[in-house]
Amino acid sequence: MMQMSGRNGQMEKAYDRMTLEFGTGNDTERFTAAGVFDKLGLLVLIALLTGAVGYAVDSVGLLFLGMIGGLVLALVGIFKPGTARVVAPLYAVAEGLALGTLTSVYAAGSNGIAPLAIIFTGGIFIAALVVFRSGLVKVTPKFASMTLILLVGFMLVSIAGAFGLFPGLNSETGLLIYGAIGSIIAVMRLFMNFDYVYKGEQRNLPAEGEWYGALIVMISLVFLYINVLTMLASRRRR
């Protein structure tokens, strides 16, 4: 059981900022976890539809456009939660195009990798939610700090690998390990997202905050899909 005690001061401040941004739901429709996951389902559907376009077009330009656009939109939505209602669907469009193109690249010579990546990602997401709801994982200061450290380290290794400083990352074993570590970090991020969603419900935020909740979960889901795709592609390299 991964259970740690204590309060996460940084996360408490984040929840307080949400309260200031959206107010409380006493006189309006209330924020609910079900509402967040309904909106997340819509974002996933948008990403799947645009992903099919990206997969069919298979354009490197579309890949980079989607990646850069997705990054900008994610940053805007994270730092300006009130914009999430507009930003979240646009983020899903951008990432769908990028991930569809990326999947097409990985799928070259590997039949069936796209549906497998989608199924595995969905399965991991559901398993993570079940584990979180069971109480086996508690998002605490140590857990949040560990997640942040691992994420920063992973990103630094990714940047270094892009410049050829870690040639082993391009091997079958290297990609498998890289994807597995990235998937673990993505699941840890999902736990933190779930914690926000259910605490947001407890704090009686208005329903407008559901778009922000859906956006942050979607960002982690995209990160998870990329790493699952990397793992599957590594096993199919010959």
Describe the protein's architecture and organization:
With 238 residues, this protein is mostly helical. It has one domain (10-235). Helix content is 78%, strand content 0%. It contains eight helices and no strands. The protein has helices at residues 9-22, 33-57, 60-79, 84-107, 113-134, 141-162, 172-202, 209-235. Helix 2 crosses helix 8 (209-235), helix 5 (113-134) packs across helix 7 and helix 6 (141-162) runs antiparallel to helix 7 (172-202). The chain is globular.
Structural descriptors:
mainly alpha, 8 helices, 0% strand, globular, single chain, disordered N terminus, 238 residues
Tell me the layout of helices and strands.
Elements: H1 9-22, H2 33-57, H3 60-79, H4 84-107, H5 113-134, H6 141-162, H7 172-202, H8 209-235
Helix pairs in contact: 2-4, 2-8, 3-4, 4-8, 5-7, 5-8, 6-7, 7-8
- Ends apart, CA distance between termini: 39 Å
- Relative strand content: under 5%
- Biggest beta-sheet profile: none
Instruction: Name the helix and strand elements from N-terminus to C-terminus, one letter apiece.
Output: HHHHHHHH
Overall morphology: globular
